[in-house]
Amino acid sequence: MDPLKIIKVGGNIIDNPEALDRFLEQFAKVQGPKILVHGGGKLATKLAEDMQVPVNMIEGRRITDAVTLDIITMIYAGKINKNIVAKLQANHCNAIGFTGADGNVICSVKRPVKTIDYGFVGDIVKVNPEVPDVLLQNGVTPVFCAITHDNNGQLLNTNADTIASALAVGLSKYYATELIYVFEKNGVLMSVDDEDSVIENINTESYEKLIKDGVIADGMLPKLTNCFDALKAGVSKVIIGNASVISNKNQKYTTLKL
Amino acid sequence: MDPLKIIKVGGNIIDNPEALDRFLEQFAKVQGPKILVHGGGKLATKLAEDMQVPVNMIEGRRITDAVTLDIITMIYAGKINKNIVAKLQANHCNAIGFTGADGNVICSVKRPVKTIDYGFVGDIVKVNPEVPDVLLQNGVTPVFCAITHDNNGQLLNTNADTIASALAVGLSKYYATELIYVFEKNGVLMSVDDEDSVIENINTESYEKLIKDGVIADGMLPKLTNCFDALKAGVSKVIIGNASVISNKNQKYTTLKL
């Protein structure tokens, strides 16, 4: 059986209509079962401005109050998700849009208040892979936005990277799953300013060394730790690269394996 | 096999959070395969006001320009549809939200311009019932909002009554389908101001007589003509009544059969 590819695309592509169109054309051509997970980009901030809703930041983090959750739901699950689905259909990819509430696929708990009340933000507690599995078996491609639910009727804003990783782990019961993060750089870089310095392969051992040597730090550290957690939980491999990774161009990218 | 119930709920319930909660509780309890189709209510107009987008009316009809289509997509497919799905999940009904683009279920053409350019409004040309069918077979309940697509990447605003009817006809290949319109009155009334004057049964013959006698006119005439068209195209029966029709209370309602 073909591996299942779970491909997460970030806000930088969502915010650029031409780049998004090109990406979706390439995504539609990816062979075998696949799932798309997309971030939100800047459209939610734009709508908040148009509605004159103030952005509520605490310690540099955006707080999801009730109005902000509405905005996120409208933008992520409405405008972005449904336009992606329609464009994939135009590219002959039979897509279907999802939040974690649809099919009860991703259940979360509202993040407990410690020092900061993040509002309607969800931490994933359970993935029910049955509905995506039955759709994949029928040649349909689920497209997830970054929203989950708490099983009590509440939608929750949830990190898209984490959704992709949780889906890959949850579906590893049924498929060999590959988790592919498409972002603005060519991969994990030895030298952050040199796009040619892609580290092509990282395993548990070399990962420890890269951390010790200070190559992996800051934002990349929690991201890669999450990737290794996904590998330990059953995901076959994780790929990190720019949009060309999905079209098998002769472009370098980073592959993570245990 | 149980008949498939396709239940369309109108804007008057969508606009009233308590009435919507009660309705969804009752809907969750409906036995057998079922599909919910919901209208939009007044939330789209409210968002247009918040965004200071002018409403564009020609001859009393709202025109769906590009900005209005975005608003409709955000409200219908985002805010309303996803909150309904989350609430149905809380009521132990495994719901999944749909536009006609999802699963390529409902294909439309942009309404041709004759005297009025309605903008991004779609007239349904094809229903592909395969994806809803596979979900129904797996105990999942599709929830449709009033948006379709043209297979070329364009979402289109489409009448919710028509979507319900097209789905009922499309799925009548696989199921005995019952089309249930939930609206603000108790049913088709002999006397428009008397809620006790429900006409409980209408068939082709009595329908002709009711038109001749002037009992059915104005807005009800095209609605009922569409219902009889659905019956002729394979739907088993059409029920028209208030929200209590789905909970089998001893309330009168109207049943249409050929």
Automatic annotation (TrEMBL), chains A, B:
GO molecular function annotation: acetylglutamate kinase activity
Binding site for substrate: 40-41, 62, 157
Subcellular localization: Cytoplasm
Keyword set, alphabetical order: Amino-acid biosynthesis, Arginine biosynthesis, ATP-binding, Cytoplasm, Kinase, Nucleotide-binding, Transferase
InterPro entries: AceGlu_kinase-like_sf (IPR036393), AcgluKinase_fam (IPR004662), ArgB (IPR037528), Asp/Glu/Uridylate_kinase (IPR001048)
Domain Aspartate/glutamate/uridylate kinase: 5-242
Catalytic activity: N-acetyl-L-glutamate + ATP = N-acetyl-L-glutamyl 5-phosphate + ADP
Catalytic activity, EC: 2.7.2.8
Pathway listed: Amino-acid biosynthesis; L-arginine biosynthesis; N(2)-acetyl-L-ornithine from L-glutamate: step 2/4
Enzyme class: transferase
Keyword Nucleotidyltransferase among record annotations: no
Keyword rRNA-binding carried by entry: no
Site (Transition state stabilizer): 8, 223
Stated family: Belongs to the acetylglutamate kinase family. ArgB subfamily.
PANTHER family: N-ACETYLGLUTAMATE SYNTHASE, N-ACETYLGLUTAMATE SYNTHASE, MITOCHONDRIAL
Entry-linked HAMAP family: ArgB
Function (record text): Catalyzes the ATP-dependent phosphorylation of N-acetyl-L-glutamate.
Name this polypeptide is given: Acetylglutamate kinase
Annotated organism of origin: Gaetbulibacter aestuarii
Source organism phylogeny: Bacteria, Pseudomonadati, Bacteroidota, Flavobacteriia, Flavobacteriales
